[in-house]
Amino acid sequence: MCMGGDKIREIMLAAHKRQMTSGKYIFFNIELFNASSYGNGSWKRGDEYDNDARQAYAALNTVTLLRTVKPEFENFSTEMKMSFEKVGLDDCKDCEEVNMFVEGFHDAMVLYAIALHEAMKNGYSKKNGTEITSRMWNRTFEGIAGQVSIDVNGDRNGDFSLMTMTNVETGTYEVVANYFGVNGTFQMLPAFSTEHFTLKEGHKEHPEKSETPCKCGLGVSALTGVIVGAVLGTAMLIAFYFFRKNYRITIERRTRGEECESRKHRQLREDSIRSNFSAA
Prior knowledge:
Elements (H helix, E strand, L loop, with lengths): L4 H13 L9 E4 L19 H7 L3 E6 L5 H16 L13 H22 L7 H6 L4 E4 L4 E4 L8 E9 L4 E9 L4 E4 L29 H62 L1
Parallel strand pairs: 1-2
Antiparallel strand pairs: 2-5, 3-4, 5-6, 6-7
């Protein structure tokens, strides 16, 4: 899921009501901006559904940008909060965390400064955008929140953290794993539990029914897609055939009509010429 925090809470409450949060399903939430308005795993709202939401969120896992504990980032966050207060944003509910755009803009300026310094040191002008840009690619440097890696195409290798609820009684979330894009590796933290990411088999509510396991889900969806695709493809071929046939008939009729008109005009001209010669 990737949407506002309130919508995610509604979905998780609905899933909990349908008993889908007991381990038979695993839910993932993508947090884009390190902000509560985009669903940072915050289940508490101070209403009558808090208890159910806390239990429901035990099945919710949040994928977010790499969470860092660098002292430099803490200082950066403090300075940003002070800036928010100076411009009158002290009541901002999402100002507890610096979002990815602020962090990314900071690192982008650092990267530009590094590339500009290298280019000018090697005799290039600060107006030489091609040279400066090329020096931004395929390099790694230390950003405000951690290591920043830019690949050979100029794209940043993303680093992400996975958060889960490690204490259902208190409803607290904790980072259990990190992913590093530069080498595609995972780092499992002490709080990581394989049991949390293992689906539990559902009990049989109707044992008298057939024991044959239901092979539905993706298989049925794929088969349905193939059938629908085949029907649509056949319909398009038939439509194309009739269109081509009608088009050919129309062209042939028009060609015959034009030939007929041409013959009529030619006959009239010949009759006119004969008449003139006869009169002469």
